[in-house]
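Hi,

I'm pasting everything inline rather than attaching a file, because the server keeps stripping attachments. The sequence lines come first, and each chain or strand is labelled.
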Amino acid sequence: MLVFIVRRTLLMIPQLLLLSILIFFLAKQMPGDAVTGAFMGKPNVSAEQMEKIREQHGLNDPWIVQYGRWIGDAVRGDFGQSFVHKQPVTQLLAGRIENTIWLSVATLVVTYLIAIPLGMIAGRWTGSWADQFIVTYNYVSFATPVFVFALLMLYVFGFVLNWFPSGGSVDIRVEEGTAEYVWDKLKHLVLPVLSGSLLLTYSTVQYLRNEIIETKMKDFVKTARAKGVSENVVYHRHILRHSILPIAAFLGYEITGLIAGSVFIETIFSYPGLGRLFIDSIMTRDFTVVTALVLISGAAVIVGTMLSDIILRMVDPRIRLG
Amino acid sequence: MEDILLTIHKLRTSFQIHGKFYPAVDGISLTIQKNEVLAIVGESGCGKSALALSIMGLHPSDRTLVEGIIEFQGRNLLQLPIAELNQIRGKRLAMIFQDPMTALHPLMIVGRQIEEPMNVHLTLSTKEKKHRTLQLLERVGIQNNEQVYQQYPHELSGGMRQRVLIAMALACDPVLLIADEPTTALDVTIQAQILELMKDLQRQSQAGILLITHDLGVVAEMADRVAVMYAGEIVELAPVRELFYNPKHPYTRSLLQSLPSATGQKQKLHVIEGIVPAIEHLKRNGCRFASRIPWISNELHEGEPILHEIAADHFVRCRCHEHFYLPAERMGDESNASITAT
Amino acid sequence: MPLLQLHDVTVQFPEKGGFLKRTIPPRSVVDQVSFQIFQGEVYGLVGESGCGKSTTARAIMGLNSLANGQILFQGDDLYQMSRASRKLRMKDIQMIFQDPYSSLNPRKNVWNIIAEPLRNFESLSKEEELAKVQELVERVGLNAESIYQYPHQFSGGQRQRIGIARALALRPQLLIADEPVSALDVSVQAQVLNFMKDIQEEFDLTVLFISHDLGIVRHMCDRIGIMYKGRLVEEGTVEDIYERPSHLYTKRLVAAMPELNPEKRSEKVKQRRQINEQYELAADQFFDSSGRIIELRKISDTHRAALK
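And the predicted assembly:
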């Protein structure tokens, strides 16, 4: 198992390298560069001066040198300067990464808390009214665009009912480290997390329902019944254990969905995380930040796939030895 | 008659096809005694597996109709609420399944799977359960029982898995075992071992076995009595020796003739004309085998064929057997067994 | 000259290692197997699951690559030919499979199934093709109308006959039958076996018949090879194998055949026990120092066994 983890981790190196090269070139392809961005709206800087600055910052060096410098810095956690915010990108990301991780983890947990029971009910009592309701909910949630749903949530619970705060990640008046601070943070998470997870349940519910329907027919389920095991135990011990496998394996891949979702959610709820920063940076052509964010999310997806592979190995004894 | 374990009376098991119910098991009555191996033999689609699942109550209730009486130790299993049935299944009444590859849970270690019926039916400490499980594994001929206890099914060979399934069925000392094609998925040498093991265990425990199989060789080696099934009915029921030395029903005789000879005579094999009708197309009045022996004229069949006791404990359905001959016997050659398409 | 000759055929798994994986030492699934099949002969290859009999068949069909050895068909090495000439040669070798339910494409009708090999090798007009397909269908005992039907509309035995019709379409010299009846009921099995015998005689076909069922093999074959752990342990005529088995593994297989006479039950059990005991005591005699089954030794003109 350890050997596998090491080997699987090593496999990430070429993946990450490829990703970074791709991003580097895409960034270079974008119109304008850091210098044009920095002096945007300052017509008093002449073209010659800009060219001089380029030369100073090595922006005219061959691509391999530039790439080497960029990736070397990135590995050390230095993504350069944000030209809009006038501060190092790393500093800009610091607090936001934490917020986004909070949001993502909470969304994932809530998604599973909702989806697994729903999938189990729908799979066990196929055709019942509960199943029909769940399937309908599932189709609706699949078809609803996240921004429409999030706006609706914001309007109903944030403005009309005023149950939850409608923006930000924490009230600035509460003191960090207190219980009140944590409580407030959680309160700020409720709406964005619910908006995200109520829509993200789709694939999990669908998968689990199908898996349970399929597993129900398996011979080993008959064996379990023939032992005199009660129906609840048959479902919880035998069927669920088998059906949950693909869900567990999918955990890593869910990260991809989360990243995409966070862009909308954070923007709508003005939640200070990476997603919102991403949109803001694109709007202001803050390319150093954009590149850093694309690199981070790309790396997150790669790590997610690796996690999936490792989890699958851990939960399924049949592929433990390879 | 205290030794009777199971009495099946007019059992009819129907499956739903396109909204209508069609019987796959059609009015079967049987008894199994203590210390007896009763074999049910027939080809696929004859209803033998449906019979086994009916006894165990394993048919999905929404698509299957099970009528009649299945009396096990004085109680009609078909009338029992599921909770009470669960107190019997896996304890007094256990089942060995056909395919050891799929009948074990792939994600549970073998030991836990054998212990499961003990969790349900016995009150044992964890240590006692493990001890008993190891003993069971030893009884079914697994020497490295400590190791196998910890293994997953995919780590074992087919023969080993079948032994595990047997150990599991024996976990709570059943008095009646239902074995559905227990050796069909196994190699010949392993099959011979498993059959011998089952026979030994049965002798020790005096349990009854209902052995479902399509293989007449397995029947000859294992059974005390044999019921031959065709199209949902028992067509012949006899002690094993009687069945092989003095088969009566046209179907039984045809089946025996269609086996490659063990003595190595390479004559043409007998071919039964036509095919087994699907249950939704089956004509349920008259002799069900009549259409496959068209050279026997209709008057020789009974209108409502019943089982006749033609010798002690030897029952045959329909009178047609009195006039039946295999084409090869009458013609003096074997070439009549032609292939006909439907 | 034999129609088919196998010389030291060796097939190894895995054939190559994956990316960044430790190279697992390859295991010989078929280990230096040699035998010959003559024109018009039915050769039975027998053994238990995992013995390498199906892999041998796949190697003859060119579906596995050889790690070592040669396969000669009519004297020409199938693995030394150019791709094109080998493809042309393979039309003389056809195969029928174990499972009639999954070996036919469910979305094609019988006409298209049977015509497929014809289209690959012969350019016939539509009328010629139809005539040929109809002839084949009738030859395997199905009615001519059935060419417009789909596999699911047939019973198992009929499907197997469709598979045989497809294999016969190109008038092959060698037919490889991999467990052709083991998925079928006894009465259907009889039908297919009779039929295979008929066409074998009619077309003077050479057949490699692979099976685990010694009863069927005895009924169908002229000569038999017994495989065990990737090696041939005994080879001989039907009489050699069933009347005078030499290798204990063969004896064990023959003894394990179910006995149809209930009277002989205890006798059979005793015999099996005896052979198993002998087998366990003598096991090391059949293996060399590295644990490999030893070479075949000639016992008579027709009979060879892996004995010292």
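The CA atoms of residues 224 and 230 of chain A lie 9 Å apart.

If the labels don't parse on your end, tell me and I'll reformat.
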